[in-house]
Amino acid sequence: PRLLCVRLSLQPTQSLPVPVQEHGVLRYRNRYRSRTTGPRAMEPAIKLQPGVTKWDIRQKIWDYIEKKNLANFPRPVHHRIPNFKGAYDACNKIKNLDCYIKAREVKVDPDKPLEGVRLAALQARKTLLVPTPRLRKGLFNKIVPPPGAAKEIIRVCSTAQGVKDFSVPVQLDAKVHIDLVVVGSVAVSKNGWRIGKGEGFADLEYAMMVSMGSIDENTVVVTTVHDCQLLDIPEELMDNHDLIVDYILTPTQVITTGCKRSKPQGIIWSKVDLEMMQKIPILKNFYCREKQEGKDVTLKDERCIDEKELQKFSGERMPRKSAKATRLKSDPFEKTGSCDKCEEETECESKAQSNAPSRVTAVYMGNIPPSLRVSELKNILRDHNVAPLRLNWQGAQHRAFLDYKDEITAEAVVTSLAGLSVSGSIIRVELAKHQGDNRFRSQTNARVNRQSLT
């Protein structure tokens, strides 16, 4: 015992009393245990201010993950579902969920952080469905590994390349019943509120699956995120088309949200515009199907002013390219011939002629980051409820012009977007100095047209 005391006294930590060190170890263990036992023990890493928007939340999450170096490839994480460090640990937790154990058909998004879930589903020999990228070619594909595939081939099948090489398309009339849906998220709350990267594909995919009859009220929705992506998201930011989640998996915990809010009950056509119909051809099939069933399929911009009518009142000649785009947008089914133009749309156009505005005012947006895409800017404007009649994108000059029906509306937009920050850049927002440069009209033509209308 005396020799043991001497040896202990020679350790470098002899200046600290043993009880203090033991207390320190216990204190550290208690801290670690509080992080892993459940959601109540964790405070959100990012605090949200009153009046925050969805885009503000996305930007805070992306900036925080980059600043703290919490992501793997691909980087940067901006405008993506972040591939956070510890994603495989979060994915492996799904194996302990009863809903996963009982599930036979699983739909998993193609995002990189969900690769572990896709691998687990293939290893468990479940039917794995993956949405087609950006829904350009159908709704989803079925991953079919080669017969007798080795473990390495199974792993390849779970990757993005494997989804391309080992998948077969699933037809819309196929009898598919999905038991479990796994989606990626940018931010999520313990209540089940979810925010994606802003393009709305996960919400739309779920709505399409409802329309197909592939899911029902018993289908469980799971997401995986880093712990820093857990925020207190205000419920007022959630819309009726937003998808909510039942389980949240992080590297350290499993959260049962117990969310009572209903999931989307189908495609909300009033949220779909003609531009989306052109980008996602499969929407036309659902449109025709539900129109034949007698459902309300009125699109979002069937109530908007047609560009040709605005050009008519502006007195300006529309560029040939814009005129072509207007012709395509006026009838999203003209090119494919998959559906006839509805009478309601024709009536809407005739009403638009009588309601065309007498003056269009432009708003200037400057100091736009080079990495921002026009689709992302449109999402920002939708989040702020300031969608313009028309957007003139000039990304090479880091600017854009937004056209609104009158000066009062334009001034309200400037106020609403004041102090807007995107990717660390403060966006300059003001009324365009030279309204005559607006693509719709010059001030002189507007004055002449008003006299003609009078």
Summarize the structure.
With 454 residues, this protein is α/β, with parallel strands linked by helices.
Features:
alpha/beta, 8-stranded mixed β-sheet, 4-stranded antiparallel β-sheet, 17 helices, 13% strand, disordered C terminus
What is the topology?
Elements: H1 2-9, H2 18-36, H3 54-67, H4 87-92, H5 98-102, E1 105-108, H6 115-123, E2 127-131, E3 140-143, H7 151-157, H8 160-165, E4 167-169, E5 180-184, E6 187-188, E7 194-195, H9 201-212, E8 220-224, E9 247-249, E10 254-256, H10 274-279, H11 282-292, H12 307-314, H13 320-330, H14 343-354, E11 361-366, H15 374-383, E12 390-394, E13 399-404, H16 407-416, E14 421-422, E15 425-426, E16 428-431, H17 443-453
Parallel strand pairs: 1-2, 1-5, 5-8, 8-9
Antiparallel strand pairs: 2-3, 3-4, 6-7, 9-10, 11-13, 11-16, 12-13, 14-15
Helix pairs in contact: 6-7
Explain what this protein looks like in three dimensions.
- The chain has 17 helices and 16 strands.
- The termini are far apart.
- Mean pLDDT is 77; it is low at 1-41, 305-338, 340-358 and 437-454.
- Helix 6 packs across helix 7 (151-157).
- It is α/β, with parallel strands linked by helices.
- The protein is 36% helix and 13% strand.
